[in-house]
Amino acid sequence: MSKHLKKRNKLFIPVIAASMLFGAVPAMAAEQPGSPKLAMAAGSSNTLSDVDSSYITAAEQFLTTVFGLTEVKFGRNPIPLGDNQWMLSFQSPGDTANDSDELMANRPNIITINKDGSIEYATMELVPDGARPASFELVESTLRQLDSEGKTKLKNVLFSKKQDDLDDHLQFTSDYNQKTEPFGVVAINSSDNTVYKAQVSTRYPAADAEQKYLPEAERVLKELSGKDHVEITGFTNIKSLLKDKVKETWGYSYENDFIAFDANTGKIKSLYIDLKDDSADAAPDLESKERAIAIANPYMINYFGIDLTGYEAKYTTILSGPGQIGLYNYTFSQEGEPDVMVLFTGQGGVKSISLN
Description:
The chain has helices spanning about 5, 15-20, 35-40, 55-65, 135-145, 215-225, 290-305, and strands spanning about 75, 80, 85-90, 110-115, 120-125, 155-160, 170-175, 185-190, 195-205, 235-240, 245-255, 255-260, 270, 310-320, 325-335, 340-345, 350-355. By secondary structure, it is α+β, with helices and mostly antiparallel strands.
């Protein structure tokens, strides 16, 4: 087995649940909560009077027309993100958290406005009797195709500006931390209200989960963890809607490693690998497609039966600190074949692989 299959790294960067469900890191704002730039800005003290009225007007227009607020009330301590962006918190009906002294990054309702009046990023909690985007009925009807019992409860809506293959879009998600209800994600094109993709993930007790993929799941997870024995503790059924077709997978987890199988073909659909051990090796040149393929191919051939040689490739990067690349998010494509998404750490370890 290639040394890259054994390589582990202590780098830890949280990836939101939707990224695993959709098989790729979703489009993100320039400065996400928890970013170094935002953390430094959080120490500054500003008031709404410091914010040019054009930013306020743009934010109000977006929150009323896209998020559906009938009245906009901004919170205290807006944060400047450089010279051309402001981050504001806002209050929605039924919510009072944004009037607290809580750090901006922890507030449920925030919006980032660019100097040209465009919105970079916005998120809002879907509180009971609160505001709802106009596309919410479409989102609920889409979820019913995947969850006929209506158990999936949405908690947040996130707007992201156009990035990569996604236009400006809204992403609706459930609360991933709760364990008793399904976790749902629906992504909507915010311009024409069409569904990009939707998924519902439901946890099952071992006795009720699909058993026929269990032996192969244990074999692969033993290889990935380097252990002689693993005990599968997580069983997840995932239903996805893509181009009006529903696809089903079964996922199995051991500690922080995860594997999912296509319920129709029985083939591996995705892997998520918990990288633990550090390496003294210098970071490889992951801006080279050939280098990225050389690292990913042992996984692809061994577990997916796919050779990435000759595939087209593109990538985006995610910073883990000022000027420090934490993750490389690669998409490999070839006509007539499913896209392959591979997430690399900055040190060249493979974090996750999924087929789309």
